[in-house]
Write a structure and sequence with these properties.
This protein has about 180 residues and is mainly alpha-helical. It has 6 helices and 2 strands, in the order αααααββα. A hairpin with a 3-residue loop joins strand 1 and strand 2. The termini are far apart.
């Protein structure tokens, strides 16, 4: 795996392990609670996992079909910059249907999500390890909002997306903890 991708994956793994560690002592009932119309913690986790999994599935299918990818240029880097900037803003964005509430498992357990996410992450690493070096200069990934990105841009999206939703998880946990204390 390319060194820069490897470093990003290590950061993503560290953030994921830290999240699992922070949440492991909560009950499934608490993690399935939704404050008003917002997603529960487990729904947020499923959303993040689905975004990663569906991205890799998309790229794999396109590669297996022999799809001809464009060489990455300034446009791909600019789109990545725009996406990451947008994710750092305090505005709400609606999730694509395939990664929204209708795609979530109802009343799932924390450990089911952990197991599924670990498997998805293992598949991501296997995929990245299988990529030929020239693929890193191509726009293999298509983000639903901004379009064609490189694999590096996809991983950068994963990280910013995770960070954004980590704030949402923390906010949800504050509401759950407040309810628990009452």
């Amino acid at each position: 795996m390319d060194k820069s991708l490897q470093n990003t994956v290590k950061r993503l793994d560290k953030k994921l392990v830290d999240l699992f560690e922070d949440l492991k002592d909560y009950t499934d009932n608490s993690l399935n609670k939704s404050p008003s119309e917002a997603w529960s913690v487990l729904e947020i986790m499923q959303h993040l996992m689905l975004a990663e999994r569906q991205s890799i599935t998309y790229v794999k299918e396109k590669m297996e079909d022999g799809f001809a990818f464009d060489q990455a240029g300034m446009g791909a880097h600019f789109r990545s910059f725009l996406l990451n900037t947008a994710l750092s803003l305090p505005f709400k964005f609606s999730a694509p249907y395939s990664m929204g509430k209708d795609a979530f498992h109802d009343n799932t357990t924390f450990w089911e999500v952990v197991k599924e996410w670990r498997e998805s992450r293992r598949q991501l690493k296997d995929f990245l390890n299988s990529l030929p070096p020239e693929a890193l200069q191509q726009t293999l990934y298509k983000h639903p909002r901004v379009g064609q990105l490189t694999i590096s841009g996809m991983l950068s999206f994963y990280e910013k997306h995770f960070d954004r939703h980590l704030k949402q998880i923390r906010k949800t946990l504050k509401v759950i903890d407040a309810v628990k204390q009452i």
